[in-house]
Amino acid sequence: MRLLLTGAWAEAQKYLPVLEGRGHSPAFLPQERDPLPVDPAWVEGVVCNGLFLHHDLDEFPGLRWIQLTSAGLDRVPLERIQARGIRLCSARGVYSIPMAEFALAGVLALYKQSRFFFAGQQARRWEKRRDLRELAGQTVTVLGCGSVGSACAQRFTALGCRVLGVDLLPRQDDAYREILPLGALDALLPQTDILILTLPLSPETRGLMDRSRLGRMKPGAVLVNIARGALVCQTALTEALAEGALGGAVLDVFESEPLDPESPLWGMDNVILSPHNSFVGDGNPERLARLILSNLAAAQEAP
């Protein structure tokens, strides 16, 4: 297959000999916004992330296979890809482990007052706190029960939590006590201690956690968003945190990125935030390469 690999696959150049050895003809584009190194009509398959934000899909008449380096599908013209019958593969599962570990670490940092003790260490101050919380026995609701959500469920379950799932496609899954339909969310919020957002962004889910739903959350609850910032009304969330209606938030994604330096979220003691970085883990390169090569082999075999 004639392949266009972009810098979204950080190790692409390392695998050029492997691909050539399997009969492929690869070309490399370091930056997806730059001019293509080949005639787009030459390309049969691509490995990319945001390539089609900068190059129109119609420029590639021979394209039949797309491998994304992201788990989400919101950066590609999905309807047009489907209409042309192009095989589309995401990086589902590649980033689940580090993202679930980030969610768990963030909640524990809030429950165990890590920021307070770190400040005490820096100041060489010996001061105890008597308000530390235990994770065991807490009710965790995972909103979006894909690979990331299930990785979260497994880890919180292992620490003694009661984990429920909410998904567009409810089903039986041993990682959860139960998976309920999206319509059950409003009834679950008042009993949820930790709400973890791992669902994809779509017209149906955009703004899902609005002012009304944030207001239904249990006092002292923690909201974790490692999915997409636009799932949550950021203004309403900021107000709920400032007013003490919520116990805290663990935020890796925001409505607008990078987060405005003037945002109050930066200075809140009950917020753990990071710059869309939760997906990073030292096991990602191996998992991504294995997935790409496997999906490519399947695409070759497909009629």
**Domain tally:** 2
Major pleated sheet: 7 strands, parallel
- The secondary structure category is alpha/beta
CATH topology of the largest domain: Rossmann fold
List the helices and strands and how they pair.
Blueprint: E1 2-6, H1 16-21, E2 25-29, E3 45-48, H2 51-54, E4 65-68, H3 78-83, E5 87-89, H4 96-111, H5 114-122, E6 139-143, H6 147-158, E7 162-167, E8 178-181, H7 185-188, E9 194-197, H8 211-216, E10 222-225, H9 234-243, E11 248-251, E12 271-273, H10 284-301
Parallel strand pairs: 1-2, 1-3, 3-4, 4-5, 6-7, 6-9, 7-8, 9-10, 10-11, 11-12
Helix pairs in contact: 4-6
Quick take:
With about 300 residues, this protein is α/β, with parallel strands linked by helices. Helix content is about 30%, strand content about 15%. The model has no long low-confidence stretch (mean pLDDT about 95).
What does this structure look like?
The protein folds into two domains: 2-94 and 282-301, NAD(P)-binding Rossmann-like Domain (Rossmann fold), CATH 3.40.50; 96-273, Rossmann fold (3-Layer(aba) Sandwich), CATH 3.40.50.720. Helix content is 30%, strand content 17%. The chain has helices at 16-21, 51-54, 78-83, 96-111, 114-122, 147-158, 185-188, 211-216, 234-243, 284-301, and strands at residues 2-6, 25-29, 45-48, 65-68, 87-89, 139-143, 162-167, 178-181, 194-197, 222-225, 248-251, 271-273. The chain has a seven-stranded parallel β-sheet with strand order 8-7-6-9-10-11-12, with helices on one face. A five-stranded parallel β-sheet has the order 2-1-3-4-5. β6 (139-143), α6 (147-158) and β7 (162-167) form a beta-alpha-beta unit.
